[in-house]
Structure formats: C-alpha cells, structure tokens
Design a protein that fits this description.
This protein is of the alpha+beta class and 147 residues long. Helix 1 packs across helix 3 and helix 4 packs across helix 5. Among the domains are: 60 residues, no CATH class; 40 residues. The protein has five helices and three strands.
Length: 147
C-alpha cells in the first residue's frame, strides 16, 4: 500500500462522509466523481543502477526526467464501518487502472501533442480546466527508491 493509495482512500472517505451528512441520501448510483491521478510510467529501478551507469561513463544512456501519464480515477461514495475499507477499495481501483493501457496511452499522446504544438498550447487546456471547473488532481509522481 503506497502513500497515494492512502491519500485516495482518505479523499474518498471524506467525500463520502461529507455527501451523506449534507444530503441525507442513501443512494449514490447517479453520482459520478472522478479525479486525475498522475502516474510515472517508468519502471521502478534502484538508485544504484543509475549510479553504476554514471560511474561507468554511460551517463548518456540514462533517460532523465519523468514520463508522466494519467488515469481518470473514479471515487466510490459509500459508507463503510471500517475506515481501512476505503483504502482497500482505492488500492484495488488504482492498481487495476495503473495496469491498464490508459497510462501509457496518455503519456504517449501527451508527448506527441507536446512535440506537434509546443508547450504553450500543451498547457492551455490543463490550466483552463484547473481554474474553470471543480476537479481534483492527486499526484503519484514521487517514487521511493531502495538502495
């Protein structure tokens, strides 16, 4: 279980409790909440692998930077007695979505769109959607590397 799984689970729990407290409703079948979760598409490797490449003089073979894709992550509104049930549901959903082709597709589409149109046009829809519509963006960029 990662920190981001807990973050998504806690957000789902908070939204669920807020919704049920404010509305008093018991049915959430018509509610569809989604979040954008940024995901690094690079395989997790140890820091020692990169250190060995740099020491051997093959630092040009190291591909620096992040390769970001994103997934549209649904929030499930439900009332659970166990607070960890939200985290378990979030982990199951995030793992399923991360293993799909959605992450790779959005990464490659973003790269090709950036190459064709440039940075200003690439960032315009992102900035417009962040400030003009209520949405949530969670980050899954930082990875822990074991040495």
């Amino acid at each position: 279980c990662t920190v981001n799984d807990v973050l998504v689970g806690a957000t789902s729990a908070a939204l669920s409790r807020y919704y049920f407290r404010k509305s008093g409703a018991n049915n959430t079948s018509k509610i569809c909440l989604r979040s954008i979760l940024l995901v690094d598409t690079r395989p997790t490797t140890s820091l020692q692998t990169y250190v060995d490449m740099i020491d051997s003089g093959k630092s040009n073979d190291v591909d620096w930077g992040n390769q970001l894709g994103y997934i549209l992550l649904p929030f499930h509104l439900a009332i659970h007695d166990d607070p960890l049930a939200y985290v378990r549901k979030a982990k199951k959903t995030v793992d399923r979505k991360k293993s799909s082709l959605e992450v790779i597709f959005t990464c490659k589409m973003g790269e090709s769109f950036l190459k064709m149109f440039g940075l200003k046009v690439f960032l315009l829809p992102l900035c417009t959607s962040l400030f003009c519509s209520p949405s949530t963006i969670n980050s899954h960029i930082i990875k822990q590397h074991l040495v």
